[in-house]
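Worked example 2:
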Amino acid sequence: MRVIRDFSLQSTFMGLLIAFVGFASSFAVVLQGIKNVGASDEQAATALMVLSIAMGMSAVVLSLYTKIPVSVAWSTPGAALLATSGVIPGGFPVAVGAFVLCAVLFVIAGLWKPLERSVNLIPASLANAMLAGILLGLCLAPVKAISIAPLPALAIAVTWIVAGRINRLLAVPAALLALILIMTYTMNISKESKDLLFSNIVAPFTMVTPVFTFSGFVGITLPLFIVTMASQNVPGVAILRAHNYEPKAGALFSATGLFSACSAFFGGHAINLAAITAAMCANEDAHPDHKRRYWAAIISGIGYILFGLMSGLITAFASMAPGILIETVAGLALIGAFSNSALAAFSDPKKREASAVTFLVTASGVTFYGISGAFWGLLAGGIILLISRWFDEKSSGAWSVNKTKS
């Protein structure tokens, strides 16, 4: 009875807005990332569907159980990582194996505190530098698009700028709407393509047998786990606490890990606690009474499920659109995340050099032994940081000895 009494139209409207913004602002990034690690169009459609359904179901279940607004999202930074990784040896089955292992790590991080603490031991500046390096190439796509297709790319970019000045949350959905209008009125789409567009509105369930390899674990699992924990799960818990909620972080990590594992067998990379939409669910715009705001997260979860059921139509549309324009929308969606991570990466002067090395190695996109640049960037930056600390400690120790002698 309490759940029914807590329902409100205000939370409903906010939940619908969250679902629209969360899905429309980043589905292009997710599709690009899944395809870049070897998924076919059908597999990518399935992955998009199961990810959306998984994050919707987890938001509904967790919010109903805890009575707090638990907003769940797919890992957008993780998708950006995949978009820069490329196909690894073994193809998409190896990537799926890496997704499964990442989900297992989420569960373990929630149940076993040392693993969660070990993630927190990674300097935030290096984690943010790695994320900034991952995002750089994607954020350059709008600039490249203007040189290749000036008019449509400029129209999308200008729409994003103007809409962002009016309401920042609607900037990317407005850019997506601009892309749809450009395709509708300026591109010659054949009748066969239009028929195909609406023939498979719901994507078929395509299960992928995972293959587990060391290169997949090091090249995808570890970086995906780190960027998701550092840039999504930990901030998601912090935002809830900032709004006077007391979430059990470990239980939430494990729960999203279980839902991630279910989606992984169908090509879904990861779901996690949301950051931006968590603030939308948890503030007074969702409801004046903070004990009733969890309904905004429930409604957003239902919205995600509905969007997921239309993933076949969405993927078919994305496959018809020029790739450079899809990349433009994805790049615009990630500019905010890039600027935030870059600022956090270089804010500490003592770690700035190590952060720069992490950023540059990651952004280079180099791959050694089938392992992506994100891992090597974090490793290189960590080595630089350790060496710098060792010399600082040695020099400070020598200074103390000389001072004592004098």
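The CA atoms of residues 102 and 348 lie 30 Å apart. The mean pLDDT is 83.
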